[in-house]
Amino acid sequence: MKEKVSSLLKDFPKEKFCEDLIGWFQREQRPLPWREDKDPYKIWVSEVMLQQTRVDTVIPYFRRFIEKYPDMRALAEAREEELLKMWEGLGYYSRVRNLQEAVREVCEKYGGVVPKSREQFGKLKGVGPYTAGAVLSIAYGIPEPAVDGNVMRVLSRIFLIGEDIAKAKTRNLMEDLIREIISRDDPSGFNQGLMELGAIVCKPKAPACLLCPVQEHCRAFAAGLQEEYPVKTKSGKVKTVHLAAAVLTDERGRVLIRKRPKEGLLANLWEFPTEEADGLHFPDRAADFAERMKRKHGIRVEITGPLGKVEHVFSHLKWQISAYYGRAEGEIMETDTFKAVPLPDLEKYPFPVPHQKIFAMYQGDIGTEKGGSRTGKVRP
């Protein structure tokens, strides 16, 4: 690995590169709320939110989150359901669970102060190499690499690196590379500069090379190959799962919801009753759904009509949900994981995005009147 790094850095003007990159970042950086100070807690929260999520989406979530949990003690003491509700819509809910667990450890072991040691910080739940490098360099000015997808794309083009960025050894190579070129005077500006460059200039498609502050250092641009880099293998085929879900109201107008299992996908979030429905189509799908509800909960269900289709893609699978609305008759035996909730109280429960969409369709297409009767068009 050292030989590869040395080869890549042969005749590379490290100081001039740092000067051009950091100078550009200082002039052009976006005014983001987590850049308003060097609070390591806020920077940590922002980095966790930004994983797999666009900056524009994160900004309002970050502001609400910090207002609700202004310091680590507040976050450590938060109830899980309340925390999941605050995170609702960001997805990848294990991120916030891990963050809370890690923050609790910081409060217990380090007196509520994020440790400056990469070894200590990197051992916390959910803190990977990128998060550790980002927080330590930005908050504390420690020259640690922070290599994410944007940074790998930038480095692949600048150094004409043909290794597959989907492989761990390529990430390791780039971390070693950054350790050699990172500014010791301003590691925060260096790392954020690389991130910013990848976000707004060195984009995956049609990079704005003529606006790039480090264009003269870019080997891919010099060779006219910027569109060919980075090299990345395509991910495997995504599995599709067909589901049926229904917004069901009982005789008192309450809506039935259930809590997902404690482990696994979307753990502990609430959803409308849902069943797998592979190979079935309406009306067989609706009939099968009703039969399962009767078998599992002793409730007679009448599907009144369809709401529409909801598709949601995770990293490894895709949900295709046929959504319906209907009535539930008989006594509702409520438990900790199965409830009948008054319509206005639904906003207190954290729902995953696909079920938020189902409820929006229910409100928009069906409408509700006092007492739970329905009016309005049914989506064909």
UniProtKB/TrEMBL annotation:
Q: What is its EC number?
A: 3.2.2.31
For this protein, the record's SMART domains field holds: ENDO3c, FES
Return the InterPro entries for the record. A/G_AdeGlyc_MutY (IPR005760), DNA_glycosylase (IPR011257), Endonuclease3_FeS-loop_motif (IPR003651), HhH-GPD_domain (IPR003265), HhH_base_excis_C (IPR023170), HhH_motif (IPR000445), MIG/MutY (IPR044298), MutY_C (IPR029119)
- Give the UniProt keywords, A-Z: 4Fe-4S, DNA damage, DNA repair, DNA-binding, Glycosidase, Hydrolase, Iron, Iron-sulfur, Metal-binding
Per the record, the GO terms for biological process are: base-excision repair; mismatch repair
Which Pfam families does the UniProt record give? HHH, HhH-GPD, NUDIX_4
* Cofactor dependence: [4Fe-4S] cluster
Tell me the ranges covered by the HhH-GPD domain, including all copies.
Answer: 49-200
- State how the cofactor is bound: Binds 1 [4Fe-4S] cluster.
Reactions performed catalytically: Hydrolyzes free adenine bases from 7,8-dihydro-8-oxoguanine:adenine mismatched double-stranded DNA, leaving an apurinic site
Q: Does the keyword Nucleotide-binding apply?
A: no
List the transmembrane segments.
none
> Per the record's keyword annotation, is Iron included, yes or no?
yes
Please list the GO terms describing molecular function.
4 iron, 4 sulfur cluster binding; 8-oxo-7,8-dihydroguanine DNA N-glycosylase activity; adenine/guanine mispair binding; metal ion binding; oxidized purine DNA binding; purine-specific mismatch base pair DNA N-glycosylase activity
* Family annotation (PANTHER family): ADENINE DNA GLYCOSYLASE
What NCBIfam families does its record include? mutY
Give the record's family classification: Belongs to the Nth/MutY family.
Main role?
Answer: Adenine glycosylase active on G-A mispairs.
Q: What is this protein's record name?
A: Adenine DNA glycosylase
